[in-house]
Amino acid sequence: MSDQQLGFREPGNIGPVNVPQAVRLAAACWVASAVVAGMMPVILEVAGIDFGQSIPDWAVPYLVAFAVPLTALQVLAAQHLLHGARWARILLTVAAALSALGAPVDLTALILAGLVLTLAGATLMWLPASNRFFLLRRVPADPVSAVAANTAGPLS
User: How many CB atoms lie within 10 A of CB 47?
Assistant: First the structure.
């Protein structure tokens, strides 16, 4: 069955893409995780609100300096996940592994919720339906030559 029959379009074409529900849910989990585990602790810490995981006052600027760009990268990768970007799936898988390995022993509700969302997103993007989607969305290394080869026809 071709990409057109399945509802997929070429990466350069604008139009709706038939994204499997598992990939949509994975992207939603990643964005929610970015908010819950990435931005909420920063906002609470900067506001001086105790959420169970306090850090020293001198470390707050470093927390902001690292958390904001990493959270933005996570949201960007989640967006690219919906377009079938394999690099985004790999990057988010590494992020999930680091999150699981770096989770504190005494989990607060906020940290636990972020970890659950992260692991759910990581699991959903590797389900069989997700794998098929990423295989069909594979972009050739040199799209220009691939298009030229497809349009050259049998007589050239």
Answer: 8
For residue 67, give every residue at least 6 positions away whose Cβ sits within 8 Å of its Cβ, in sequence order, or none: 38, 39, 41, 42
Residue 99 DSSP label: H
User: What is the spatial distance between Cα 151 and Cα 156, in angstroms, rounded to a whole number?
Assistant: 10
What distance lies between CA 69 and its chain's CA centroid? 14
Residue 149's pLDDT band (cuts 50, 70, 90): low
The 10s digit of each residue's pLDDT in 100-145 is 998 887 788 888 999 999 999 999 999 999 999 999 887 555 555 5
CB neighbours (10 Å) of residue 120?
Answer: 18
Tell me the chain's radius of gyration from C-alpha atoms. 20
Length of the chain measured in residues: 156
φ/ψ of 120, rounded to 5, equals -65, -45
Q: What angle do CA 155, 145, 141 make, to 5 degrees?
A: 140
List CB contacts of 13: < 8 A, sequence separation 6 or more: none
Asked if residue 81 lies in contact with residue 89, where contact means CB atoms within 8 angstroms, the answer is yes
Ordered DSSP codes for 54-88: ---GGGHHHHHHHHHHHHHHHHHHHHHHTTT-HHH
